[in-house]
Specification:
Blueprint lengths: L3 E6 L3 H4 L10 E6 L5 E3 L5 E7 L9 E4 L1 E9 L5 E7 L10 E5 L4 E8 L2 E6 L8 E6 L2
Parallel strand pairs: 4-6, 5-11
Antiparallel strand pairs: 1-2, 3-4, 6-9, 7-8, 7-10, 10-11
Length: 138
């Protein structure tokens, strides 16, 4: 699989409204090498599969379309972990779109309506880096 480049352009005031962190740079370039598998059913439901290890996610980017998305997160770390999704530049718990706890050795699902935009995900417990999540319009 070819490495994919994700170009995240500066976000408008709508996404950054209410963020306590500083605005992201005008352009962020992230080299994704292992995007998360996404399965889309005929009814438009999308399923994203993530695996979290001791200090990383095996999948380093997510690309979905707007609409209902079900996240399947498998915990292969040695402790309970958390998936946190926030708008780009809003890396704090107050601005999280959602947080999902995943017990050690288990897979947890979370269903959410995603709107077009640029987001990031991480695990604050494992102190993973922030990975890009891009939601495209239908």
């Amino acid at each position: 699989m070819k490495p994919a480049s994700i170009f995240l352009l500066g976000m408008g005031a709508l996404i950054l409204a209410g963020c306590s962190s500083s605005a992201p740079p005008e352009e962020i370039v992230y080299e994704a090498t292992n995007p998360a598998p996404v399965v889309e059913e005929e009814n438009g439901m999308q399923y994203v599969y993530l695996t979290e290890g001791p200090s990383y996610f095996a999948e380093d980017s997510i690309h979905v379309r707007e609409g209902m998305v079900v996240f399947y997160v498998t915990n292969e770390a040695d402790k309970d972990v958390t998936l946190v999704v926030t708008p780009v530049g809003c890396r704090d718990a107050e601005n999280a779109l959602f947080k999902v706890n995943i017990p050690r050795g288990r897979t947890t699902t979370h269903k959410v309506e995603m709107k077009p935009g640029l987001y990031e995900y991480c695990c604050p417990i494992n102190q993973t880096e922030w990975y890009p999540l891009e939601v495209h319009q239908r």
